[in-house]
């Protein structure tokens, strides 16, 4: 039978489903909650793109000039009313740039010459050859007015003492940079206007950066700015689509006249105070950001609202000088073709605003106002407007809601950001001091809407798993690009959420193609088989759970769960998996997210493998199978035992201890590893275990770890892919299920690379393989072997955790590894695989379940098993005859002055050629105490004494028999002689 852990007093080896921090659950599932993160379909209407096109490119969509003029007239009238309404809080309003725009000529009328830098800024002529009016007079008037107002120092009660040290230094820096910025702007204008002439080296280089990029037309820019999202698709390994990626982004299109002046003023004051004046870029802002970055390592940012719109809608995420040059040129070009109002409207409709009160991602100011405060964007108060305006800078750090729509516990960052927006509005004279102080004192948390559960479409284990994997890959790419490690980000909630949601949004809206390794035939068969046999592995419980705090009663159904993963050894590809059997009622991923105690499956990975690798043991090494007690300073103790409390009180070989999966010998070996300082955690890390989640250093320093006592534990995927190390000759090949990711243009942005990592030497590995074969032939895996319908060179390890909460089977052929787990989630009450529940012994039922599914796979795809292949013995492994009792060569040794000669019985065993069978010594017994060593030799002395007595008795008996025979012979001889006479 398989061993069972008994770690009760030292480490909480009780199974624990991973309790994540409050993070995106697709990476760290909180299994205590019944909700899991799901990917909802988009909730915007089909007319969204048409509406936004109307906003951005009104003339292109509406050819009727009369109707357009009427709309613009109404728009200007609304703006004039807004200016009049806010005249008390502004020294002077900047007039809205009302430039008209026209369509560009068709491509066939354009010159085919290589584009010059000048072409990026030159307005195209109409087809008649007349140049379109640019409304330069309007621009000059607006800029002259803005210059007058921008020179105001603010409210009359402003003083430098009101500012913090950081704000003072910022103001001084602004003044200094103002001079340089204006000079640079003049120089830039001169250079741009003279770009066609023989200019300086700098403009030549700048022009060369974009000379191969034709300037986009107005229609092209409008189309890209209008394009809100591109649908991504997930694929099977064959290229068949699994599903299109569904987004949970909620957005709506809002006209500028329907947006509160507080929002518009706050946005401009906070993000781009010179928005109404600049031509798309502010040179001094770029210089300031560069200097601050050089001096402090961080900057306040140098991008205008126009640049931000360009970055979000027209450019990729790469960070290069070429991209920055493109950004600047595109910003100038956008300003040349679109009015300030059109740019502002576009920005407010495409920007992300975090999450709403049912956990949806929201984009656009309309849905932001409705989803956070329950009002229209024209109805927000000043504090509400300031809060909304502050969100786009870091929407998932400032958002008040988590992914479920619950209010976050810590809202400090968002509120501080709101105060910053209010201050900037006050500084820019958009609000009075009284308004500023009143808004700052307002408790914005009282305005937040309460959580409303969202109704969302169910997906599937497969969809969620591939989504999770793709998001992880995109996250990791971004993390590495920022010179950070996964563990650094993983342990910081803010960082983690930021990277997660950025990657999630990138995948949902990027038009990506995600190719998985999943074989559709294998995956589908696994689902059918798991459903068919699920009612043969455990009881379904139900009951009523009463919340101890609220008294609320919940009716629940707790059915036995299963997880299984099939991995191709040579590549690490996941061919298929079972994450559960009832997605409708339980979305917990039991293959890739759930973490449980590994039970005895940890023994070959963390105990026997490292011990053989360090030449501490071999298959013939003899270890005591006797009681073991670990005492602690507080007087408590830990007394583990074997399965069923069956202690043989004998000495057994490592081979036999492993095939029987006895706990006590494994603990003895592991104790020696710890005492010698063997870095077990390094071996585990080399086999793909994430030390943050599955196994920690503290875990590995506890003896209970050797039999599955862990804090969180591995996933089925992690434990299975680690076991492939033995099938791969001691090399670890990372298991994976995302093959590659392509962007919307067909560029491969991620390609899985699986280099092999050396974990165990070839000879160590083969010794482990040969011992793991015995698990099926004569050990705890006999039931699986008896139920397999075909023959292959299998190796196997089974495992049962404490109280039979987790039942494992890991099996490998040279070509494929299949790992299986069964157990209960125990969301409301602890349940175990009970030997008395009518389904038989725990390990027996799990092995029959595993074997039946494997048989079904073999009938479908026998090619994946490699039945014609065998694990090959390397030349570095030899066979020797050793004494079975000691695991050593025959020989003599002296103990306490007495000579012992042990020469048999003999048996054949495998050894490394570099670590052959050892000679007989007095302390050959591995992991034994001095008393146990002494006890062995005492017993041996007693045995030898008894043997000598028996020999002497036999010799005496033989001599007596010989004398009796001689006497009888003599008597017969005398009688014969007498008769003759």
TrEMBL record:
Q: Where is this region: Disordered?
A: 1-159, 947-981
Source organism, top-level taxon: Bacteria
Name the residue ranges with Acidic residues bias. Answer: 957-974
Enumerate the catalysed reactions: Preferential cleavage: (Ac)2-L-Lys-D-Ala-|-D-Ala. Also transpeptidation of peptidyl-alanyl moieties that are N-acyl substituents of D-alanine; [GlcNAc-(1->4)-Mur2Ac(oyl-L-Ala-gamma-D-Glu-L-Lys-D-Ala-D-Ala)](n)-di-trans,octa-cis-undecaprenyl diphosphate + beta-D-GlcNAc-(1->4)-Mur2Ac(oyl-L-Ala-gamma-D-Glu-L-Lys-D-Ala-D-Ala)-di-trans,octa-cis-undecaprenyl diphosphate = [GlcNAc-(1->4)-Mur2Ac(oyl-L-Ala-gamma-D-Glu-L-Lys-D-Ala-D-Ala)](n+1)-di-trans,octa-cis-undecaprenyl diphosphate + di-trans,octa-cis-undecaprenyl diphosphate + H(+)
The biological process GO terms on file are: cell wall organization; peptidoglycan biosynthetic process; proteolysis; regulation of cell shape
Tell me which InterPro entries the record gives: Beta-lactam/transpept-like, Glyco_trans_51, Glycosyltr_51/Transpeptidase, Lysozyme-like_dom_sf, PBP_transglycosylase, PCN-bd_Tpept
This protein is called: Transglycosylase
What species is this protein from?
Answer: Falseniella ignava
């Amino acid at each position: 039978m398989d061993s069972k852990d008994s770690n009760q007093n030292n480490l909480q080896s009780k199974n624990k489903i991973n309790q994540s921090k409050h993070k995106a659950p697709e990476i760290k599932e909180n299994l205590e909650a019944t909700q899991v993160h799901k990917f909802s379909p988009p909730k915007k209407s089909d007319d969204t793109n048409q509406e936004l096109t109307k906003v951005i490119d009104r003339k292109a969509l509406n050819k009727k000039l009369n109707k357009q003029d009427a709309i613009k007239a109404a728009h200007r009238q609304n703006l004039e009313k807004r200016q009049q309404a806010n005249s008390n809080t502004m020294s002077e309003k900047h007039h809205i740039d009302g430039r008209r725009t026209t369509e560009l000529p068709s491509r066939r009328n354009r010159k085919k010459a290589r584009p010059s830098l000048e072409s990026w800024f030159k307005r195209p002529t109409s087809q008649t050859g007349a140049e379109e009016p640019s409304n330069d007079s309007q621009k000059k008037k607006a800029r002259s007015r803005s210059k007058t107002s921008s020179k105001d120092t603010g409210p009359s009660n402003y003083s430098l003492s009101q500012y913090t040290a950081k704000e003072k230094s910022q103001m001084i820096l602004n003044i200094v940079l103002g001079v340089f910025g204006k000079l640079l702007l003049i120089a830039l204008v001169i250079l741009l206007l003279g770009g066609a002439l023989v200019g300086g080296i700098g403009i030549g280089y700048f022009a060369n950066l974009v000379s191969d990029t034709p300037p986009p037309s107005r229609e092209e820019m409008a189309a890209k700015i209008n394009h809100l999202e591109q649908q991504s698709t997930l694929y099977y390994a064959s290229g068949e689509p699994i599903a299109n990626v569904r987004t949970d982004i909620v957005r709506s299109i809002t006209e500028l006249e329907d947006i509160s002046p507080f929002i518009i003023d706050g946005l401009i004051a906070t993000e781009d105070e010179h928005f109404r004046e600049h031509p798309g870029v502010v040179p001094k802002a770029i210089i300031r950001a560069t200097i601050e970055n050089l001096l402090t390592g961080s900057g306040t940012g140098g991008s205008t609202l126009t640049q931000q719109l360009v970055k979000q809608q027209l450019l990729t995420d790469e960070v290069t000088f070429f991209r920055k040059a493109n950004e600047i040129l595109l910003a100038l070009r956008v300003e040349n073709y679109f009015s300030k109002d059109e740019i502002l409207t576009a920005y407010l409709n495409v920007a992300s605003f975090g999450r709403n009160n049912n956990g949806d991602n929201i984009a656009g100011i309309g849905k932001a106002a409705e989803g956070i405060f329950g009002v229209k964007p024209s109805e927000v108060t000043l504090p509400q407007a300031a809060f909304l305006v502050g969100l786009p800078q870091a929407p998932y750090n400032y958002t008040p809601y988590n992914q479920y729509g619950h209010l976050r516990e810590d809202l400090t960052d968002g509120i501080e950001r709101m105060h910053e927006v209010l201050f900037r509005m006050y500084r820019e004279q958009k609000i009075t001091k009284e308004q500023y102080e009143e808004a700052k004192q307002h408790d914005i948390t009282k305005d937040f809407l309460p959580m409303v559960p969202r109704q969302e479409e169910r997906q599937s284990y497969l969809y969620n798993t591939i989504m999770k994997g793709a998001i992880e890959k995109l996250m990791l790419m971004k993390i590495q690009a920022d010179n950070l490690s996964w563990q650094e980000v993983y342990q910081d909630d803010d960082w983690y959420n930021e990277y997660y949601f950025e990657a999630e949004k990138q995948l949902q809206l990027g038009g990506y193609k995600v190719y998985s390794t999943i074989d559709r035939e294998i995956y589908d068969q696994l689902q059918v088989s798991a459903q068919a046999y699920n009612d043969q592995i455990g009881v379904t419980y139900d009951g009523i759970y009463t919340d101890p705090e609220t008294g609320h009663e919940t009716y629940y159904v707790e059915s036995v769960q299963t997880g299984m993963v099939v991995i191709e050894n040579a590549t690490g590809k996941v061919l298929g998996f079972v994450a559960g059997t009832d997605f409708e009622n339980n979305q917990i991923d039991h293959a890739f997210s759930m973490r449980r105690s590994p039970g005895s499956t940890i023994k070959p990975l963390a105990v026997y493998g490292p011990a053989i690798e360090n030449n501490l043991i071999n298959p013939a090494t003899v270890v005591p199978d006797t009681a073991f007690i670990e005492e602690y300073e507080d007087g408590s103790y830990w007394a583990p035992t074997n399965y069923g409390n069956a202690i043989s009180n004998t000495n057994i070989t490592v081979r036999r201890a492993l095939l029987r999966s006895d706990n006590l010998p494994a603990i003895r070996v592991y104790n020696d590893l710890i005492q010698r300082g063997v870095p077990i955690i390094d071996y585990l890390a080399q086999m793909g275990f994430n030390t943050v989640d599955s196994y920690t250093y503290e875990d590995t320093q506890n003896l209970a770890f050797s039999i599955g006592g862990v804090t969180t534990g591995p996933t089925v995927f992690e434990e299975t892919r680690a076991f492939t190390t033995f099938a791969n000759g001691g090399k670890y090949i990372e298991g994976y299920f995302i093959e590659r990711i392509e962007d919307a243009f067909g560029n491969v942005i991620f390609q899985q690379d699986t280099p092999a990592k050396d974990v165990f030497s070839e000879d160590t590995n083969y010794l482990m393989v040969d011992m793991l074969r015995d698990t099926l032939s004569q050990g705890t895996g006999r039931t699986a072997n008896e139920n397999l319908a075909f023959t292959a060179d299998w190796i196997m390890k089974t495992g049962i955790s404490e109280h039979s909460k987790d039942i494992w089977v890991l099996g490998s052929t040279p070509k494929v590894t299949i790992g299986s787990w069964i157990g209960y989630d125990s969301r409301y009450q602890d349940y175990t695989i009970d030997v008395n529940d009518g389904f038989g012994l725990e390990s027996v039922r799990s092995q029959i379940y595993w074997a039946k599914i494997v048989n079904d796979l073999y009938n479908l795809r026998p090619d994946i098993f490699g039945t014609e292949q065998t694990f090959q013995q390397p030349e570095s492994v030899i066979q020797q005859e050793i004494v079975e009792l000691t695991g050593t060569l025959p020989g003599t040794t002296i103990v306490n002055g007495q000579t012992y000669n042990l020469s048999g019985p003999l048996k054949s065993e495998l050894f490394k050629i570099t670590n052959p069978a050892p000679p007989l010594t007095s302390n050959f017994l591995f992991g034994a105490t001095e008393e146990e060593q002494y006890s062995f030799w005492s017993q041996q002395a007693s045995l030898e004494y008894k043997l000598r007595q028996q020999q002497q008795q036999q010799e005496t008996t033989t001599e007596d028999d010989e004398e009796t025979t001689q006497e009888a012979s003599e008597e017969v001889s005398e009688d014969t002689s007498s008769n003759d006479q």
